[in-house]
Amino acid sequence: MQEVFDQSTRNDKREKAQELQAFIAASNAAAISLSGAALKALLLLNGGAAIAMLGFVATMATGDRASLLDLSEVVSVLQVFALGAGLAVLATGFAYVVMYFQAAVAQSFDLTDEPPFYTNGNKTTLLARVYKIFHVFSVLTAFASLGSFGLGVMWTGGIVSIAGM
Description:
Layout: H1 2-62, H2 71-108, E1 110-111, E2 118-119, H3 124-162
Antiparallel strand pairs: 1-2
Helix pairs in contact: 1-2, 1-3, 2-3
């Protein structure tokens, strides 16, 4: 009788572990999708701002306020937006490396017959550390891209006010 109870408890734990793994997989898929959308948005935000800045310069250069425009300031703002776009691309690359190492960590586990039905393999700890490092790099680079956009917007405001717009 005790063996039947133990087997039933083991099956319940196995089902709970499978449910938890399914939830983690669904949450991970949502996080990947949302992070990809955020990184695309950062690239579009900075790239669009650079293009808008070029349009502003073209409009100013053909008008009577061309002498009010400090081209070195404009070039600096364009560089800030270009840096933001580049950082968004770099963050996307880091995100790819994160996904690669996440898969490597998942593959490094050894399966067992006892709950939680897996243990760390020989390389799991090392791969998990590398995964976490690149995850931090990706997040910090994305925030730097957003910060670059904010700096560019503030700097653009100064240029526009100096030009008398």
